[in-house]
Amino acid sequence: MFRDEVGYAALVALVLGLGLLALRPADRASVRNHLVVLVLAAICEVGGHALEGSAVGRVGGWVADAAAILVGFIVLRLAAMFLFRVLLPVLRFETPRIIEDLAVSALFAAWALMWFRLAGVDVGSLLATSAVITAVLAFAMKDTLGNVLGGVVLQLDESIRVGDWVKVDDVSGRVVEIRWRHTAIETRNRETVVVPNGWLMANRFTVIGSRSDPKPVWRRWVRVNVDLSASPTAVCAALERSVRDAEIPNVAREPAANAVLLEIGARYGTYALRYYLTNPQVDDPTDSAVRAHVLASLERKGMKIGVPYQEELQIRDNEAHRTQAATKERERNNRVLAHCEMFGTLTEAERDQLASRLVHAPFVKGDTITRQGDVAHWLYILDAGRAEVLLETPSGRRPLATLLSGSVFGEMGLLTGEPRRATVVAQTDVDCYRLDKSGLEAILRARTDIAGEISRILASREADLVTAIAERTNGTPHASTSDAILGRIRNFFGLEKA
């Protein structure tokens, strides 16, 4: 190559390099290295030509020729980088990196052959000799070549891509790199598994998620055994609602979770709750959170976890044991009622009667305990944990209050038949006890004055609630009087006026 042509080529490489430095910050280190080599090659080329008239002129010629070849390689490399990493993305045409590597390799080979031809070397005989050598090397390195070709095919047909979550035999993880010879998979245990590309081409592997989804999701199965005394339809509904009514991170709202009865065993049925996970990285923690919500939902519905028949036969259950358990449960329920202002006027006998009607209702963090607008079947007593009262508005949820241990909520709907006025969501795992209408009815009919005491407490609480709602909605608070509430209680329970 003539000296002027080398200079022009070096100038082109410099322009390409400066453009890449400005437009591709991620490649700056690589481009800087190429420019440094370009400067050294230019110095060597000038120095080689300067030595041609001296005693070591032949050596100088070799140095100049080698520098010219190197400048050509750098020009081709920077031109390919500019084409594949700047121009094509601007035209919305993305190509796998391996295509760029193949193009650069082909250009390098063409440039080398052209240089040999300019240098007077017989390219035909060189290619013939190279073909024989290539055949020998291909036979000796067939496994390596299979991996290389496998890497090319995998990237060309995009059957696997960097960032995909995959399962290969007993390995599950995220693809972090696809090289010429292998594919690297990083597992959740922070281990990097290297799989030969040839193996991936010859065997089956699983890509998690659908390529047609904008955000791929992964269906997970959570299995649970439930006693056959529970209706399968009711169990499936409870399992589905445990996810639908809870805020569980990384659980997709759509597609919705669904539950099925898989099989029937000895005195229990095996159910599967199938939900969709949005982030495969946290599969086990999310499964654990879903199981916690499932267990709490089943307990609230009074559904027992199924156990093998032979284990049930080993349980000692007699009259004395049942009496002791019932007494312990009633003492616990009395303790819960004793801390509630609403039931402060009850006698010990009346409180004991009411305690027998309390039902334990645990909730897991994120569970919806009551929903605004629903029919009120129970009032709740919060024994442990923390819950938040939220107002549902067209613009979203707005917080109204925080409920702590000893709080009673849902009482207005239970005592008057009105729909729920707000949504209550568990901020932590909570222990609640619920009481239905029939549990209060007998006491209210026996002592009508209790309804008056309760109505005064409800009037005070309603005033606080409507004031909070008015502040959030810029409205005017309109709270009912205790007499108005007392009238609604009497109408709902069919009580005669005192």
UniProtKB/TrEMBL annotation:
<feature type="transmembrane region" description="Helical">
    <location>
        <begin position="6"/>
        <end position="23"/>
    </location>
</feature>
<dbReference type="InterPro" id="IPR018490">
    <property type="entry name" value="cNMP-bd_dom_sf"/>
</dbReference>
<dbReference type="GO" id="GO:0005886">
    <property type="term" value="C:plasma membrane"/>
</dbReference>
<dbReference type="Pfam" id="PF00924">
    <property type="entry name" value="MS_channel_2nd"/>
</dbReference>
<keyword id="KW-1133">Transmembrane helix</keyword>
<dbReference type="InterPro" id="IPR023408">
    <property type="entry name" value="MscS_beta-dom_sf"/>
</dbReference>
<keyword id="KW-0472">Membrane</keyword>
<dbReference type="InterPro" id="IPR011066">
    <property type="entry name" value="MscS_channel_C_sf"/>
</dbReference>
<dbReference type="InterPro" id="IPR000595">
    <property type="entry name" value="cNMP-bd_dom"/>
</dbReference>
<keyword id="KW-1003">Cell membrane</keyword>
<feature type="transmembrane region" description="Helical">
    <location>
        <begin position="63"/>
        <end position="86"/>
    </location>
</feature>
<protein>
    <recommendedName>
        <fullName>Cyclic nucleotide-binding domain-containing protein</fullName>
    </recommendedName>
</protein>
<dbReference type="Pfam" id="PF00027">
    <property type="entry name" value="cNMP_binding"/>
</dbReference>
<feature type="domain" description="Cyclic nucleotide-binding">
    <location>
        <begin position="342"/>
        <end position="461"/>
    </location>
</feature>
<dbReference type="InterPro" id="IPR006685">
    <property type="entry name" value="MscS_channel_2nd"/>
</dbReference>
<feature type="transmembrane region" description="Helical">
    <location>
        <begin position="35"/>
        <end position="51"/>
    </location>
</feature>
<keyword id="KW-0812">Transmembrane</keyword>
<dbReference type="InterPro" id="IPR010920">
    <property type="entry name" value="LSM_dom_sf"/>
</dbReference>
<dbReference type="GO" id="GO:0008381">
    <property type="term" value="F:mechanosensitive monoatomic ion channel activity"/>
</dbReference>
<dbReference type="InterPro" id="IPR014710">
    <property type="entry name" value="RmlC-like_jellyroll"/>
</dbReference>
<feature type="transmembrane region" description="Helical">
    <location>
        <begin position="123"/>
        <end position="141"/>
    </location>
</feature>
